[in-house]
Amino acid sequence: MLNLVLFGPPGAGKGTQSQKLIEKYQLVHLSTGDILRGEITQGTTLGLEAKKLMDEGLLVPDAVVIGMISNKLDANKDAKGFIFDGFPRTVAQAEALDGLLASKNDSISGMIALEVNDDELEHRLLLRGKESGRPDDANPEVIRKRIVEYNSKTAPVANFYKAQAKFKSINGIGSVDDIFHSVCGVIDTL
Ligand code: B4P
Questions:
Q1: Domains held by the chain: number
Q2: Cα(112) to centroid of ligand 1, in Å?
Q3: Which domain holds residue 23?
Q4: CA distance 155 to 79
Q5: Which of the listed residues 18, 36, 40 should we mutate to test ligand 1's pocket, taking the one with most ligand atoms within 8 A of CB?
Q6: What is the distance between the alpha carbons of residues 124 and 120, in angstroms, rounded to a whole number?
């Protein structure tokens, strides 16, 4: 199985690259952000709780997102592999993911990090906010809070995969197609 973690700060291009990767490699796309926004649209209790945190630029509790991913793995037993997009976002989530995959005799093939500077992230997210109406993309203060959350809680996840020699990093600035080409080049070495 090919199990990829697509990593990077908010707005780095994880969702954008995932769409192209699932087509090329026939993988199941698991985006915790998309799943949470689905819960919000359906108005579930989980969605209502998550919305408060997401609108403030804060992470949703580990137990909630780990439970969601566990359900999705069980629901896709015949998958050729997965792209984890926006998950794991904490070291606790990374440990839980390793445990869930190990229980299925499986593991992460590699983490690919998209490197993008803060100014470009803010620019991209504000632009998306205008088009999508996503509340967490509309306000520069919330965007900066998301970047702070990323630096304090999510960036250490890279060390978790570095310790397993599974970490690869690429430049996330440039055209979507050029970045996709670089991502595929890394996948071919896994
Ligand atoms: P996500 O949905 O994961 O949001 P994101 O990080 O902003 O999206 P992404 O990084 O995929 O966007 P993309 O770059 O593709 O999370 C939202 C919130 O959900 C989090 O803040 C948190 O509250 C919660 N959450 C989710 N997962 C969680 C977890 N595991 N634990 C706890 N909480 C969790 O796109 C950004 C924009 O850039 C787009 O408009 C795109 O068109 C543009 N773009 C992409 N590539 C580009 C390029 N090369 N050049 C120019 N623009 C580009």
A1: 1
A2: 15
A3: 2-27+79-116+154-187
A4: 28
A5: 36
A6: 6
